[in-house]
Amino acid sequence: MSNRIFALDIGTRSVTGLIIEEQQHTFSVVDYYMKEHEERSMLDGQIHNVIAVAQTVKMVKEKLEETNGPLEKVYVAAAGRTLKTVKATSAMKLNQQTISANETLKHLELETIQNAQKQLVMDTDDYYANYYCVGYSVVQYMLDGEKIGSLIDQSGNEAAVEVIATFLPKVVIESLISVLERTDLQMEALTLEPIAAIEVLVPESMRRLNVVIVDIGAGTSDIAITKNGTILAYGMVPIAGDEITEAISDHYLLDFSEAEQAKRNIVIKGEHVIQNILGFEETIVAEQMTEHILPAVEKLAASIAEEILQLNTKAPQAIMLVGGGSLTPRLREVLANKLELPHNRVAIRSVDAIQKLQQPYHVPNQPDFITPIGIAIAAKQNPVHYINVRVNQKNVRMFELKQLTIGDCFIQAGISINHYYGKPGLAAMFQFNGQEMTIPGGFGASPRIYLNGERALVNSIIQPNDEIVIEKGADGVLPTVTIEEVAGITKPITVYYQQQPFELTPKYLVNDIEQSAQYVIQDKDDIVLKPGTLKEFIYLIDPALLKAQVPFKIQFNGKLEDLGSFLGHFTINQQIAQVDQLLQDKDMIELTTNHTPTIKNVLDQLGEDIFETITVTFNEEIVTLQKLNKRIIRNQAEVGLDEMIQRNDVIECEEIAVEPFVFQDVFRYVDIDLTKVKGLFQIANNGVSTNFLEEIQDGDKLTITWN
């Protein structure tokens, strides 16, 4: 018996017991027995009367023991219809810092699962500990609201993750254990019914296909969907074979059990003799019954199709029907029509479809034996166990559908890992040469996690009776940034005034007190660099130079503008400089005099944009074209850009319409003499033949070639 497996399929209407023998990579059925419940002790796959169900299980067990000896351990399955799937999202502020460790990302995922758990509790009005999280998958990562492949080392304001988490009610497992204890059976391993059917019908190599398995029982039709190498979703509709039986009962005036027997015999043998409640006998043939039950079949198929579309968002590639209800006449064709699938994409699968099962099968080659055999094989190959651990001195019982980690324990214990992060440090806000600047505070440290006294991670694997402790991480601190790191000026610089060198040693005044470049900036500091500006340098060499500058004021577009001193002004590196401009190493400072400004000088100083500009390439040479887009009026007379102006002039700048640029405009900017060129020539714009008056746009590629 060491290689033999005892499995039970505890269904809504009956209990099926199987003894299967494992032989290397295959299995064979040694014995089986099926017994119907004597009363309605189960509803929609959930045990409602433990004592009554236990009595049926005991009968099955004793019958198999007559020829196979004592049975003590059993493989069972939890109904997949009880699984609950929840989608949730969580986000964390980055403040332009990055997630550099997978551990931080894992923490964010766990927080998202806990959000899903909270949503489940709100939807079911239940307690979180009444559910086990049996798995989750990441739907997408997001950075600042946009999808992204990975969050590691990405910089932004906010990171987010969306997951789908699956939960199983604890009561499903507890009721199964209670039934087994009453029949002196020990749960060897557990699986889920949808997993059982998929395990034997859809090997992992085929799960990249979008395939739906529908297990049509007595009270419910269970749905499982595979796609992209995994089990995508589970679902259930609360109608199945009993709906068809009731239609037969109503039409032929039969009690429910007689209608059920008639349905089975007609499906298997093609006809059945009935006696209705009035005592009249009648022979029903398959074609006749099919016509009468067609409305019920339409209703069942419509419900299944609707659930598939809701879970899968579209029709799948193929559908496999299992369970006794799958034999319902016309169901396969009607379901295919509902989903607009070819009829050969919907199939009823029987025992002979199980590749791992040896012949002869020793069980009827029918679809209602798929799930019992699958339970035995799936529970043997992918068993599920209970384990107990302690989290922060609290006992936690885990349902081991997969290899469990510390993170799974936190979820079951109701620990929100986000609450164990240290608080972010406060930012430092200060002024540097009059400019507001901010340095963000440090991140709070991640929680400290211990497994049996040793440091561990949330994805560390756990064992039964492990001791887990989580402690709050240290709070973030104020940023430690020095003046040197902000200013970038730590050494003396040399500038030249009227060709003479001057060495300037920077000094830092923090709140009017001189500090070194290594001073650590504090919140609300006011930092000034001296001599940092042109004005401060001039004051050092000759304060009278500042007084020699005569204000130059004009009226520009109705506003009084002070243009500085055009009769005596400073330049840095041959560019007119403002007195508050910061000096750089090797700057060339000049004082120019006797300069009368032009209109263009004034407009440049005021930052007025007076040109419409495009850049093109002409025979692979970059050329910038300009057209004046303003009309300049000085003292009520229109003037050009080279016109000199005087103090107190009244200048107005008006928008004018700009003619589009054409091909021939480029010749004002390139050196080419068309009169000296012999032979025919061709001109083109972006490789397309054109003419000199054709409009051109920014970025165009212009060419002219001669034959």
From TrEMBL:
Keywords: Cell cycle, Cell division. It comes from the Bacteria. It holds the Pfam family PilM_2. InterPro entries: ATPase_NBD, FtsA/MreB, PilM, SHS2_FtsA. Residues 5-201 form the SHS2 domain. One of its GO terms (biological process) is cell division. PANTHER family: CELL DIVISION PROTEIN FTSA-RELATED (PTHR32432), ETHANOLAMINE UTILIZATION PROTEIN EUTJ (PTHR32432:SF3). This is Cell division protein FtsA. It comes from Ornithinibacillus sp. 4-3.
